Inverse folding.
């Protein structure tokens, strides 16, 4: 089993895409799983959900549960499947319920400010 740790992420974290700030939070969570880089999960209340549309994509993690994905809509583009959430995570990672994580790419910046 992959060891998963979740802790409050230090500082203020943001998500930017298409020139807009999609999320800003002092209450983000940092999830570390095995040797993977840490992933920042943002509370839904700190995300501009109007920029996100649920997509058809889903996936399953044996440790976290079933994920659903979101595409980001900016003024100039749609960034497909750029974020995901575990709506009903397994009990060991229950803290990430009501949180969304974003893939950091050349189009989406996830950073501590």
């Amino acid at each position: 089993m992959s060891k998963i740790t979740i802790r409050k992420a230090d500082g203020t974290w943001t998500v930017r895409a298409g020139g807009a700030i999609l999320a800003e939070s002092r209450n983000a969570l940092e999830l570390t799983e095995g040797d993977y880089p840490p992933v920042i999960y943002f509370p839904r209340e700190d995300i501009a959900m109007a920029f996100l549309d649920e997509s058809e994509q889903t996936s399953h993690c044996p440790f976290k549960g079933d994920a659903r994905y979101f595409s980001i809509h900016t003024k100039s583009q749609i960034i497909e499947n750029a974020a995901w959430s575990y709506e009903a995570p397994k009990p060991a990672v229950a803290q990430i319920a009501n949180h969304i994580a974003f893939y950091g790419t050349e189009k989406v910046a996830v950073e501590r400010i």
Summary: DSSP finds no helices and ten strands in the chain. The chain has a mean pLDDT of 96.
